[in-house]
Automatic annotation (TrEMBL):
The lineage of its organism: Bacteria, Bacillati, Actinomycetota, Actinomycetes, Kitasatosporales. CDD domains: DUF820-like. Keywords: Endonuclease, Hydrolase, Nuclease. GO terms for molecular function: endonuclease activity. It comes from Streptomyces alkaliphilus. Residues 48-183 form the Putative restriction endonuclease domain. This is Uma2 family endonuclease. Pfam families: Uma2.
């Protein structure tokens, strides 16, 4: 049985240790409600993640890379730790000691919502992911795989993202600095749940 614990600044290091010491070996994140197991992604997401990676790669700033490898990134100031589905990160982040990366090394994160994660990725976005990402990560993409649409959050600030835009899959969407290109979302509908 998975029990979640409320994170606080005081016990955040203990929660990180607990995430890595899980006896079942499953991946987990630290959200507002504590340690939450990460469910395996549906296989149909793989082509969408590959397509997104291919479209981002030519626009990635020098010294950064696009990854889908399951690493945990921490946001200690908000007591959160996330393992994004896809992310663009400063390559130097992987030279640091330890088992988790610094969230401030991320320049873009993307999450694909599934039935089990939609509430976490989307409904609670302001209290968890977007609130933490919105202070330091320039671009946050939420691919809503149930509704067939992409929401881009941009313009981070101390209060979170200042702007967002939602488009249906198949429509282009501008991706701001440090990328500065228009993302083609044609093909993303292949991962939409029936």
């Amino acid at each position: 049985m998975d029990r979640t614990r409320e994170p606080s600044g005081r016990d955040f290091p203990a929660l990180l240790r607990a995430v890595h010491a899980r006896p079942d070996g499953r991946r987990a994140e630290i959200l507002g409600r504590g340690i939450v197991p990460v469910e395996p992604r549906p296989l149909r997401f793989r082509p969408v993640m590959k397509l997104l990676r291919e479209r981002l790669l030519p626009h990635v700033p020098e010294g950064q890379d696009v990854e889908v490898a399951p690493f945990l990134f921490v946001f200690p100031e908000s007591g959160r730790a996330f393992g994004p589905d896809l992310y663009v990160v400063d390559e130097e982040a992987f030279g640091a000691p330890g088992r988790h990366g610094n969230g401030s090394a991320l320049s873009l994160v993307a999450e694909l919502t599934s039935g089990s994660t939609k509430e976490t990725d989307w409904t609670d976005h302001w209290t968890d992911r977007a609130a933490a990402y919105g202070r330091v990560v320039p671009v946050y993409l939420v691919l809503n795989m149930q509704e067939g649409q992409l929401t881009i959050f941009r313009s981070p600030s101390e209060q979170g993202y200042r702007a967002r835009r939602t488009v249906p899959f198949g429509s282009p969407v501008p991706v701001p600095a440090p990328f500065d290109f228009t993302l083609d979302t044609i093909g993303f509908e292949a991962g939409v749940a029936d």
